[in-house]
Amino acid sequence: MTPPWVDRLFGQQSTLFYQVTLAGQVFIQQWTCHDDEDGGLHRLTFRAVIDQRVAGWGSGRICSDGELLCTAALDPVRYCLRNQGNLVQQLDFGAEQVAILLPDGSTQQVDRAGARFLVDSTFPATMALIYASLAGENAAAADLNLKLKVFLVPSLVTVPYETWPSGDAETAAGCWHCTSHRSEVLLDAAGVMQVARVPDAGVEATLCRDAPPMPDWQDFPRSDRPPPVYRMPSGAGFRLEDVEIDGPVTPIGGSLSIPAGPGPFPAVLFIGGSGTHDRHGIAGDIDIGSHEIMDDLAEHGFLGLRFDTRGAGSTRLGADALDRGLASDIADARACLAWLVARPEAAGQPLFLIGHSQGATIALALAGEPAAGPGVQGVVLMAAMGRDLDQILADQILVQGRKLGLSPQQIEAQQADAHTLAQLVRSGQAWDGEQVPHHLLAAFRTPTWYKAFLDYPATGLIRRVNCPILLCQGGADFQISPTRDAGPLLAAARDAGRDCRYLFFPDLDHLFKRSAGQSSLEEYQQPRPVDPVFLARLRAWLASRAGLKA
């Protein structure tokens, strides 16, 4: 027997098509097809063409594919997600647990926590399926009062989801409903989702009856440029040795840059920022440029260790992949520091830390630990946070919102959410649907990552550092502010009597690359070198403290 939701959604057309706009611009085109499967299961195939330029994420369009095997009641059995044909996740649903196959081949188990359905925000049809299914269980299909739990694919967590009719918002096309996730949904008399929108985000998905042909993901190469790849500089005066370090959770892959000559050499540990990037600072289509810093230092007599973050290069995600915070990243960096100290090439020589963005907070934490003692003789902070995370997020929301064309009210609503989220994390309240608004609960599967930044305030950490500090900041950085981040850090260091020098580069962005005006995420994908003036001044500061010629 054909389930009612199949007839509702696919009875008049073989393909369900939603178009998603962001601030009025077409952001996602999304197709859904249905097939019966042997054994009483149903196969639903989703495809989305995402224009990254509209969201300010990148420079082109990509294809994302989802495949859901489910029962006639839409109970998920297996879900696979691919980007550009590459597997991102595979989820296998049991009665109590969800088994997750991650991109590095490792697996995790999370509590299903009573989730009845699956939702992937990239594919609006995953929400339309739920409404079409539940409409068959209610007398008035367009008048749904729902209280259920759904499993969110992006955050891999089960969250409560509630809907209720919005009163007098009935139209010829159906009835509007509000949801506990701050969205609004228009359902027709049969319970088919005609429109779904998130007003504060400027996002709106609309059902279109005339679907264009479904494209193949091969029609949309990720970029018109080949992805960045690290190559040793021609005629390099150093060699690279690939190494593996015993980390606290999983082995950490890295490369040791060894200058020419007998050694030993002053040593540098480079600690990169947040996110997934390899030891050279390459994250997908973005070349962060950390390899340029380490190569330059190696050419001038510094031993250097660079390492892969979790899930990049040869470093696995680790058993704590779904509940990691800053403390996990500090522990990884601490293991790398101990490994570098023990290398014979560094014996008896000064040791330095360079931290970029989140890595600067980690460098401060390590340098201030008693175990660091006299070993660390200098810390370089590149684009370091000086405020609480919610304040930084509020600024980034403002910059990005204006770029996308959001209204002041939409921007203010998102900033208020960032503030509320920080207050909830600080309060230590239970992280559940009884204490946390559902739309915020969906943003973080646990508060671990967020809380860690509150536990490691940079202005407090810098007061505990006894070695010289070099604070570097770009004036075109839209993520970190010279006045609201670098300023408080410098003041805190000097108030504590620390040796802290400040270098300001008016035209450099967050990656310390030259930018024409205010930088942006799209600009990060443009191939640009790390600024040579910055490299020279960084090298000179380190050399003066290591007894080398710059």
**Which stretches are low in confidence, meaning pLDDT under 50 for 5 or more residues running?**
none
Name of the CATH architecture of the largest domain: 3-Layer(aba) Sandwich
**Rg value:** 26 Å
CATH fold group of the largest domain: Rossmann fold
Strand order of the largest sheet: 8-7-6-5-4-3-2-1-15-14-13-12-11-10-9
Query: How many structural units, i.e. domains?
Result: 3
Strand content: 25-35%
For CATH, the homologous superfamily of the largest domain is named as Alpha/Beta hydrolase fold, catalytic domain
Q: Give the class-level CATH name of the largest domain.
A: Alpha Beta
- Distance N to C terminus: 78 Å
Global structural class: alpha+beta
Overall spatial form: elongated
Number of helices: 14
Number of strands: 25
- Mean pLDDT across the residues is 91
Protein topology:
Layout: H1 4-10, E1 15-22, E2 25-36, E3 42-51, H2 52-55, E4 61-70, E5 76-83, E6 86-93, E7 97-101, E8 107-111, E9 117-119, H3 125-135, E10 146-152, E11 157-171, E12 174-179, E13 184-187, E14 193-198, E15 203-208, E16 238-245, E17 252-259, E18 267-271, E19 282-283, E20 286-287, H4 290-299, E21 303-307, H5 326-341, E22 351-356, H6 358-367, E23 376-382, H7 389-404, H8 408-427, H9 438-441, H10 448-455, H11 458-461, E24 469-474, H12 482-495, E25 500-505, H13 521-524, H14 532-546
Parallel strand pairs: 9-10, 18-21, 18-22, 22-23, 23-24, 24-25
Antiparallel strand pairs: 1-2, 1-15, 2-3, 3-4, 4-5, 5-6, 6-7, 7-8, 10-11, 11-12, 12-13, 13-14, 14-15, 16-17, 17-21, 19-20
